[in-house]
Amino acid sequence: MRGAAAECRRLLAQAHACLDDLDERDELEAPWLAGVGGRVHVESGAAAALRDIAVRTAGVPPARLATAAAERALDLLPAQQRPARLLFTLRLADGHACAGEPEAALAIAGPALSEVADIQDSLIRQELNGLRNRLTAKWSHHQGVRDFTDRLRSPAR
């Protein structure tokens, strides 16, 4: 959180290597960590950690790494896991916002707003609030950002 992007990347590489080394015994002992589930878990955490570093440092490289991790998590996630898919979609959009790409962030997050109203998950709300705050801090004059925040305020998204 202090901007230790290199250390974060080192630990993420170590986590990926550990996932590669899991065997059948590990799958029996920790099935949630083996296979696709473990990869989704690591990529989701990577997206959040790297995005947080990008926020703290205003760094584009960690923001780009965050978007790549969020994309990998979304690619691995089964379609029926809607709350997790929404969470990772918002992380992906936030990564684009941190990379200075408001149009990409809005294009990704905008369609997801209709789902947010139906989900009462505090982590999803936190992700959405962070995205909104980052968009409005830099691009409050941008019509797309104003439309996005207006949609957040309206009951029918």
Question: What does the secondary structure layout of this molecule look like, with pairings?
Answer:
Elements: H1 5-21, H2 24-29, H3 35-57, H4 60-76, H5 82-98, H6 102-109, H7 113-116, H8 122-139, H9 143-153
Helix pairs in contact: 1-3, 3-4, 3-5, 4-5, 5-6, 5-8, 8-9
Considering the chains and any ligands shown, give keywords for the structure:
single chain, mainly alpha, globular
What does this structure look like?
With 157 residues, this protein is mainly alpha-helical. The chain has one domain (5-153). 77% of the residues lie in helices and 0% in strands. The chain has nine helices and no strands. It has helices at 5-21, 24-29, 35-57, 60-76, 82-98, 102-109, 113-116, 122-139, 143-153. α3 runs parallel beside α5 (82-98), α4 (60-76) packs antiparallel against α5 (82-98) and α5 packs antiparallel against α6 (102-109). The longest helix is centred in the first third of the chain and has 23 residues, at 35-57. It is globular. The chain starts with a helix and ends with a helix. The model has no long low-confidence stretch (mean pLDDT 88).
Shape: globular
Helical/strand content category? mainly alpha
Biggest β-sheet strands, sense, barrel:
none
Distance between the termini: 33 Å
What number of domains? 1
Average residue-wise pLDDT: 88
Uncertain regions spanning at least 5 consecutive residues: none
Radius of gyration: 16 Å
| Number of helices, where a helix is a run of at least 4 consecutive DSSP H or I residues | 9
Number of strands: 0
Portion in beta strands: under 5%
Q: Give me the strand/helix succession.
A: HHHHHHHHH
Helix content: over 70%
